[in-house]
Amino acid sequence: MVKSVEPDRNRFQKIVRGKIRENLKQYVSQGELIARQGADTVSVPLPQIDIPNFRYGHQDKGGVGQGPGEEGTPIGDEKAGAGPGAGDQPGEHILEVDVTLEELAAILGEELELPRIEPKGNKSINTKKDYYTGIHRSGPESLRHFKRTFKQALRRQLQTGTYNPDAPVIIPTADDRRYRAWKPQSMPQSNAAIIYMMDVSGSMGNEQKEIVRIESFWIDTWLRSQYEQIETRYIIHDATAREVDHHTFFHVRESGGTKISSAYKLATDMIQKEFPPQDWNIYPFHFSDGDNWGGDDTRLCMELLTEQLLPASNVFCYGQVKSAYGSGQFIKDLMEAFPDNEQVVLSEINSRDEILASIKTFLGKGA
Amino acid sequence: MLTVERRLPPDLEEHRQIIRQYAVDFGLDFFEVIFEMVDYDEMNMIASYGGFPTRYPHWRFGMQYEELQKNYSYGLSKIYELVINNDPSYAYLMRANSEVAQKLVMAHVYGHSDFFKNNAWFSQTNRKMVDEIANHATRVRRHMDQYGQDEVEQFIDCCLSLENLIDSYAPYFGTPKETTEEQREQEALDTHGTKFKTKPFMDSFINPPEELEKERKERLEALEQQEHFPVNPEKDVLGFLLHNAPLKRWQRDVLGIIRDEAYYFAPQRMTKIMNEGWASYWHSTIMTTKALEDSEVIEYAEMHSGTMGTSPGVLNPYKVGLELFRDIEERWDNGRFGPEYEACTDYDERRRWNKPVNKGREKIFEVRKIYNDITFIDEFLTEEFADRHQLFTYRFDRQNGQYVVDSREFEAVKTKLLDSLSNSGQPVIAIDDANHRNRGELHLTHEFAEVPLRIDYARSTLENLYKLWTRPVHLVTTVDGKRKQFSYNGTRHEEKLVS
Description:
The complex is a heterodimer.
Chain A: H1 6-22, H2 24-30, E1 41-46, H3 58-61, E2 63-66, E3 74-76, E4 95-100, H4 101-112, E5 126-136, H5 146-160, E6 179-188, E7 191-199, H6 206-226, E8 229-237, E9 241-244, H7 246-251, H8 260-274, E10 280-288, H9 294-312, E11 316-321, H10 330-337, E12 344-349, H11 355-363
Parallel strand pairs in A: 7-8, 7-10, 10-11, 11-12
Antiparallel strand pairs in A: 1-4, 5-6, 8-9
Chain B: H1 10-25, E1 33-38, H2 40-48, H3 59-73, E2 81-84, E3 89-94, H4 99-118, H5 129-147, H6 149-161, H7 181-190, H8 203-206, H9 209-225, H10 237-244, H11 249-270, H12 272-291, H13 297-308, H14 317-333, H15 338-343, H16 347-352, H17 360-370, H18 373-380, H19 383-388, E4 391-397, E5 402-407, H20 410-421, E6 429-436, E7 441-446, H21 455-469, E8 473-479, E9 482-488, E10 493-497
Parallel strand pairs in B: 1-3, 7-8
Antiparallel strand pairs in B: 2-3, 4-5, 6-7, 8-9, 9-10
Helix pairs in contact in B: 1-4, 1-12, 2-3, 4-12, 5-6, 5-11, 6-11, 6-21, 10-11, 12-14, 14-17, 18-20
């Protein structure tokens, strides 16, 4: 009788979560998790979760091998993949643990004490999904329910007295067959749309974009854990704005002037066309270094915000990334224009270390 | 949990009896083996507990389980067999394996069990370990109930961190000397000098009381003068801490458990090559000469070559062990041993040497009885063998960031191999002063042998050692050619050069 490994496994996973929480700041500021994102898990490298002991530094150790080759022949970067059966010693590698994005969001939420979001929107929007809940007497063979069919056949044979305990052969007839059947069920759904806008004018350097990239990854992760469906749109702008895909958003580098209003205008159009505010929770995020081209444009921005964007959105978040060239004026203008507006969340990000705090500012309101 | 039928199904039971009989006929002398059928999930579970499903609870078993599961699902590794050194031996067979695989594994397992029973290095292990481990688990659980799971688990972490600091050879030289300072003092006080045997009426002449008293005083004085405790460097760090560290009763109990288990597993590390070689020798002998049916040959060959596979950077213990045993058998069959053969330097003559004495089988049985990996390699790894099997040493080339073939010189290969086996591949570290600087600080020295320690791990380990000793701890080792002392005093790390 084997006792279950589950308690020990849960202990381990708890320790893993603890470690991630402990190092969250580092994971966030280094941004290395983004590259490790799979379909719905992230593989998190955990240094030193294994028990330390006095051991040799393995690179210096060298050893004895077997096979052809002259002196100096390379035999591989690492002693990759020990031979069959040679695996009784713990490996010398950094442990990588797969964590679901949901779990990562939960850790982020707990660590930053983010409130759960109360979705607005039309509760009557329903999605239909098929669930296998029932059993039918007919159906495709691929859905045949073996156990039920067997039981049915057994029952019939017992009833008709054709069951022989000494030679327990069960032969199902066509009547005995049972199939899994599905029922469509409707679920109320709340949708969210995130619109990322980024200033890509000459003053935004690689480091600034990296900060935006990391921050949007975590914001994405969190919002995804809060809504069933998330649409993400990306807008870049310098003097003009255009919609781009995810990759371009983070890699493009333009130069030239800055007209923030162009992006707000495009976002407004987008909302009108694709995301009717009564059905969608809309989150516009705008990142820039705070430079704008003249007071006229800034005034236009405020107008667009007040009349169009703010009424449509849950919150409007503006993150100002510090750059060597930007004047950093825009955040001041926003502060002035919306001094007590809860819907406008402003955050200044001077370095990578401040990303976490900035996320908290953006998402801490639970709107 | 669901109790699943574990017994062998009738057809496999039949095979088992046949194979068992073959093994007996070949002269194998094993503990009775109880085979159980498990699926991969259970197999991984049992393997993650080191073969003992009833082990004490600890998170690292969960970690190992996850890793095994992941490797299995990615098809990276698969455990064919698992056998426990116990009387009777327990062996687990994977339910999904084919019949040929099961037969091979059974033969292999009988080889292991024979090795467990007869190899001298296993002679000191507890043969009722299955029961013992279950008792350990009960005790640990009781402590957890009383003192809290977190506290006990953290203490276990500390102990495990020092788990490799045992004296693997100690069990073979009488019971390890486990004396505390008080005991030794008492001993010295109890002695009354050197007394000669005599008749009572002659006693005062032959053993003059004043001389005895003088001697006693001298001894006490010597004890007072003695600077070092322990007297000789103590490699059994766990044992030393068990008797001398300021531990609570439950902590002492847990530390004792960890130490017992470390000593139990030590011989398996000391005889990895031999043990696997011996078992492989027997599965191949039993299968190819007796148990294999014509239709199974291809599948057997595929499996066998799979376990024997080599890759350049890794020495496969199955392969090396098996080939060495075969080599020994052949040499002792053809008389290629003894002074006459050793003295012969002519390559061709050596190659053609054939004086049929047919002592091969007898010899390998003897070898499996008294050798361990180090003595085995030292004695039986010949230049011809190293040549034939293309052995080489490798080193890490820093410039190119990869391992490269270093040398094919026989001496170099042998030395490197023996080095890597010495102390089962663990650094040799001993306590040489438990009252360092007369402040009750613990001082350890690493017996440096070419390869430096990993410093980040060493620091964390010192922290754990501190938790047990509760006074500052020091470790002297060599880094970049310089002797350095690493210290931890409970709040911070220090390092300094020492002469």
